[in-house]
Amino acid sequence: MTQQNIKTPANVAKAPDDAVVTESGLASTILTSGTGSDKPSATSTVTVHYTGWKSSDGSMFDSSVTRGEPASFPLNQVIAGWTEGLQLMVAGEKRRFWIPEDLAYGPEVPGTGRPGGQLVFDVELISFEKAPEPIQVPAEAQKTESGIDYVVTQAGNGEQPTADHTVEFHFTFLDPNGKPVQSSQQSGPQTAPMEKLPPFFTEVFAQLQAGGTADTYIPGNLLGAPYELVKCELELLTVKESIPAPPVPEDVAAVPSDAQKTDSGLAYKVLNSAASDEKPAASSTVTVHYSGWETNGELFDSSVVRGETTSFPLNQVIAGWTEGLQLMSKGDSFRFWIPEDLAYGPKQEGSGRPGGLLVFDVELVDFK
């Protein structure tokens, strides 16, 4: 269907006298009646077909109908006129709304590409899903020292970890519907020193033995999740003694004068040379051992500490790695000073991500 097939409503400029007007100023008329009596709430996810026009000139600015597929979205994440208006509807209903600018996108602002002023929408509510009930902590749950609720579902029969151990584990974060939103079951087991994990992991792992499982109930604000509580299923796979962290490089604070530099600004030193001419390409998959520091000497990641190498396609990592490892041969060890524009960007407090100039010691174990 093309835009020309959808006629501009004759009453696009002004709501008719028989329109129902709410206290907020939202006006609407029912075009097609729906069925049932259930209506979505502000937290429901709705599926709709819609077409929108500007009252000022009758021009159509958006339509799911012309695209040939309905749209779905949480009702509390759209303009106020939609959030309010669709709560008046039942499934199958089609309604025309006249939405004043203070319930839409505000006044018309030339050059923004955004519709302004009063807007008119024809909306068909195809279906909706009510928001799930909030996650409830089971009555049998226990609390960790920091106040995280947990239930041991299987104690395990292996070694019990302490702060000095490194653990291998699986995790699955679930939404209130019980659907996984992030899980290591797809990406593979995670390995980390206990001291590097957040308390809602370490405090629960300390209650388990290898082979054990537990359900944890974590406040959503600790994870940046839009739910009051998030359920996380944990499985402790193995426990082993932690490997000491590598020493902080003496030249971690800044690029030394004897480092070599590429045109991009990447700086490096050869720590160990295997004297080979064969080097990986950007499309190679490399296997490496590495440790990474910020310029204050803080170690933020290390495969050495985890006691296992890591492998990845070289064209799927930060630009400094993609460029730098192509300078290396199998068996080489380099130290890289990677500027922020070739790494993760500037330091952002609270992001949990390293920023600014980063320093990496990398051993190229193998490549394909």
Please tell me what the overall shape is: extended
Main sheet characteristics: 7 strands, antiparallel
**Which topology of the largest domain does CATH recognise?**
Chitinase A, domain 3
Into how many domains do the coordinates divide? Answer: 3
> Helix amount, in percent?
under 10%
User: Average pLDDT value?
Assistant: 93
* Architecture (CATH level 2) name of the largest domain: Roll
Helix-strand makeup class: mainly beta
CATH class of the largest domain: Alpha Beta
- In angstroms, what is the radius of gyration? 28 Å
Percent of residues in beta strands: 35-45%
Low-pLDDT runs of 5+ residues are: none
How many helices? The count is 6
Number of strands: 21
Briefly summarize what is shown.
By secondary structure, the chain is mostly beta strands.
What does the secondary structure layout of this molecule look like, with pairings?
Blueprint: E1 20-21, E2 27-32, E3 45-54, E4 60-63, H1 64-67, E5 71-74, H2 80-85, E6 94-99, E7 119-129, E8 142-143, E9 149-154, E10 165-174, E11 180-183, H3 184-187, E12 190-193, H4 199-205, E13 213-219, E14 229-241, E15 260-261, E16 267-272, E17 285-294, E18 299-302, H5 303-306, E19 310-313, H6 319-324, E20 333-338, E21 358-367
Antiparallel strand pairs: 1-2, 2-6, 3-4, 3-5, 3-7, 6-7, 8-9, 9-13, 10-11, 10-12, 10-14, 13-14, 15-16, 16-20, 17-18, 17-19, 17-21, 20-21
